[in-house]
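QA checklist item 7 of 12: single-chain prediction sanity check.
[x] sequence parsed
[x] length recorded as 323
[x] structure emitted
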Amino acid sequence: MAPLECSSIADFDVGKTLGTGSFGRVRFGTHTGTNQHFAIKMLRKRDVIKSNQVEHIKSEKKILQTLSKDQHPFIVNMAAVFQDPCYIYMIIEVVIGGEFFSYLRNAVKFDNQTARFYAAQVVLIFEHLHSMDIIYRDLKPENLLLDREGYLKITDFGFAKIVPFKTYTLCGTPEYIAPEVLLQKGHGKGVDWWTLGILMYEMLVGDPPFLDADPIQIYQQVLQCKLRFTRSYDQDAKSLTKKLLTPDLTKRYGCLKRGALDIKTSHWFDDTDWEALLKRKLDAPIKPTLKSNTDTSNFEAYPEDVEKAVPPEFDGPDPFADF
């Protein structure tokens, strides 16, 4: 995807909401000059500032700009970023197939082959990110999208960070959070491999392994790390899941001397052609139904935002002045 010449939201026909978050929403948009379609991430500055997330947003922009130079097949690309007094706008590649979360919920759980196909793509995503000292820290089905061919694209780099060794920020989704993050003794790339283990389990069982209405109870379960597998859980998948969901970082797959290679050569992935997968030459087990390039029917319906833009509610200089 080539960089896009634009400087204002007026350069776009803004359409349906594709997703919502704490600071705004993502909407389908068409660039009027080129008729190209994008996902427009619109972040309310006042909410970002109130929540002390300015540095996170700046980091997200920097990381997406870096990643978009390489254009990895399973990572969304950013075409442009700009702002006005009220909003930050990130113009991102639109992934039209919808949220991976929706497909998993509709299926309840995936068969072994489907789960392996999508887990393998996450392995390649993390291998690429870690080669650039980027940790993602927020893997979950909601942050994965399916493209028109049924391949994954990972999105939402709000928690991603460039970390050569360790960082100490407490962040992540309770069901996916790694024990070293909870213990706040510093964490690194190993957190991503933990979340891969959680995703594998959720795809094969239908729920993550640590689950409760109370996040505190989830955290206690994470620290205890008692795994219970269903009878249908593939034995090779079970072995790999255990090696990923290991609190001891000196034993966790992905964190050892061979890095991601330990995961890629595990028995569960014996039949995976990694090169063909990276080149997108394999048939995906799920293929979204699409009527056109503007068909957004695979996304959940969200109430449209009727809030009128208002100036940011803060004193002093705009922290995004040099954004």
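[x] summary fact logged: Residues 100-278 form a domain with the Transferase(Phosphotransferase); domain 1 fold (CATH 1.10.510.10).
[ ] second reviewer sign-off
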